[in-house]
Amino acid sequence: KPPAMSGAQPLQFVPFVSAPDVAFWCELGRRKLEELGLDDAPIALRGRYQVTAHGRAPMQVTLDSTAFKSAAPGTPLSPGSYPVHGTLVNTNTLEAFKSLDKNALMEREAEALREAIARPDPTDEGEASAAGGTGGAVPSLARCLLIAFADLKSHQYFYWFAFPVLAPAVPFVAEAARPLHAALAPVPASAVRDALAAAEAAAGRALPFFAVRVHPRGVTLAPGGVADAGTGTSVLAPGTVEAAPLSAWARWCDDAAAAEGASRATPFLCFRDPCTDPAHPGWPLRNLLMWARAQPGAPELADVICWREPPPAIAPGAAYATAAAGAGAGAASSASAS
Questions:
Q1: Structure pTM?
Q2: Is it the case that residue 319 has pLDDT exceeding 80?
Q3: Which of 89-98, 172-181, 244-253, 311-320 has the lowest mean pLDDT?
Q4: Of 181, 267, 297, 327, which residue has the fewest beta carbons closer than 10 angstroms?
Q5: 160 burial level (CB within 10 Å; 0-12, 13-18, 19+)
Q6: Where residue 201 falls among pLDDT bands split at 50, 70, 90?
Q7: What residues have CB less than 8 Å from 235, skipping those under 6 apart?
């Protein structure tokens, strides 16, 4: 079992809300008439969620007319939107819709999630596409399942949404969330923003899930960092914040475990959080924690940053995030599971 944490409580998550728009149903109707006919085989979809500056915005997963075409891995989304890959099962009758085996379909989605958490970086759609997935599903930590019946004669649409997650055998627990500026002090929270922007530029893609580490003291590194003109080595100044794709997190945890005293760089598990609740993280964290606990040598506690600032292209504003909770594996505000 993980060590006891003072004030730790079971971690609760704010769920997604489905938001298919009229354009999505119109496109489904068109495809049913012109392409699908009576074919009721599962269809790949991609919805999206957004991180906004609006304090009361619901955590919506939107599906529009592009949900079918954008399901292909690597298809870009507009700035500030992050993918939710999933499956549509469109039945031919209302009776078939009502009698569909939802448990079997959910198990298929669960298998896609298991494949995702087995990957070093399940957010890299290019790598995931090359490897393939269950029934052609794109491995992803954020997934949805949509069951529908389109009654084209009456222009009525019946549907059922689910946002599958893998559940731990023992619930995650977490300390109370704190504002990021308090958790990182004296390092400014804006340093995370700058590091994330640099990491996304280097990766050539948005990072809905990512890793951050904070160096409390100056440190000399292998290639990477800022080159010292006098020695030719790579150095990081005190308080430097690094960000990288998710695959760096496990390696940085190993580095932290091997470091001593003040030289230890603190790794953070991070995600772009569409939730605005000050006390609870959003739904995407659930599968991120399951991914973290599946990593070889994952620590019993993990520091988590719920990054809630929209990209500059969407809305400027103060960086706000919470060091929220962890994985079966963290600390300033931490979470654990056995």
A1: 0.82
A2: no
A3: 311-320
A4: 297
A5: middle
A6: very high
A7: 218, 219, 220, 221, 225, 226, 227, 228
**8 phi/psi in degrees, rounded to 5:** -70, 140
CA dihedral for 286, 273, 129, 27, sign (positive or negative): positive
- pLDDT tens profile 154-163: 989 999 999 9
Between the CA atoms of 55, 56, 60 and 65, what dihedral angle is there, to the nearest 10 degrees?
-80
Distances (CA, A) of 293 to 91, 108, 335: 37, 21, 11
Give the whole-angstrom CA distance, residue 215 versus residue 240.
5
Both structure tokens of 266: 């603190």
Summarised one tens digit per residue, pLDDT across range 84-108 is 999 999 999 999 999 999 999 999 9
Provide φ and ψ at 290, rounded to 5°: -65, -35
Rounded percentage of the chain residues whose pLDDT exceeds 90: 53
